[in-house]
Amino acid sequence: MKISQKLVDEVVSELAGADVVPLVALLRNKTNVSEFLLAEKLDVEINLVRNMLYRLYDNSLVSFTRKKDKKKGWYIYYWTFNPKRVRELIVDIKKKKLRKLKERLMREKNNQFFICENECMRLDFEQAHDYKFKCPECGVLLNVQDNRKTIERLEKECEKAENELKLIEEAVAKEEKAAKEAAAKRAEREEKKEAKEKEAAKKAKKKAVKKAKKKTTKKKVKKKVAKKAKK
Ligand SMILES: [Zn+2]
Fold it and tell me: In Å, how far are 38, 44, 89 from 48, measured between CA atoms?
């Protein structure tokens, strides 16, 4: 399983609002995107784009750098999406959902519920007791509800959520590993490039020194020749 765009969109819209989904699509797999470019591409006012970006920023889903525009004198912000953070959040949200489902299941298993035949209310034992086991809406006597079906449904949902979480955690681990490997490769490439540049600089310096030496010896020779000529 891969972390799908759909899953990313789901998490992003849950945390920052559904309107940021198209913006995230523009940021994904890119770095340092100008907010003016985003406004242009989305065809919305710059203030609205900034508002969306701040909502993402509040959840650490984006980071920014800024540069001063020399002509206009103000700062332009450049934004980068944070895929590592979104992976963390996907797992967090799915875990939370599973926990809630389990809590509901336990509540169903450990409690007795009462309903009225007109389906006005569903009360737990304490609430039903407070109303003397009569429906507070229509007044008929409350019956104990057979909630085995609800329990069965919740058990299935829990199982499904557990499996989904497992797959997501595996996918996240895989992507995390790939990201680390890519970063290591990038670092290695940069190191090699730097070493090459250093080597080239060294050679250039050596050459320059040699040239300078040649010049001075030439000058000396010239001087000697000149002296001899004077004599
Ligand atoms: Zn009722």
Answer: 10, 7, 24
Ligand 1 centre from 149 Cα, in Å?
A: 21
Of 176, 208, 198, 215, nearest to 86 by C-alpha is 176
Helices (H), the chain: 5-16, 21-27, 35-42, 46-58, 83-110, 125-130, 148-230
Predicted confidence (pLDDT) at residue 49 exceeds the cutoff of 80:
yes
CA of residue 123 to ligand 1 center, whole Å: 11
Closest of 29, 51, 53, 26 to residue 40, by C-alpha: 26
d(CA 134, CA 116): 8
Count the neighbouring beta carbons within 10 Å of the beta carbon of residue 129. Answer: 11
> Which phi and psi (to 5°) does residue 72 adopt?
-90, -20
Domains in the chain (CATH in brackets) are 5-81 (1.10.10.10), 86-188 (no CATH)
CB atoms within 10 A of CB 18: 11
Find the 142 Cα to ligand 1 centroid distance in Å.
8
Q: Find the mean pLDDT for residues 35-56.
A: 96
Give the pLDDT of residue 211.
Answer: 86
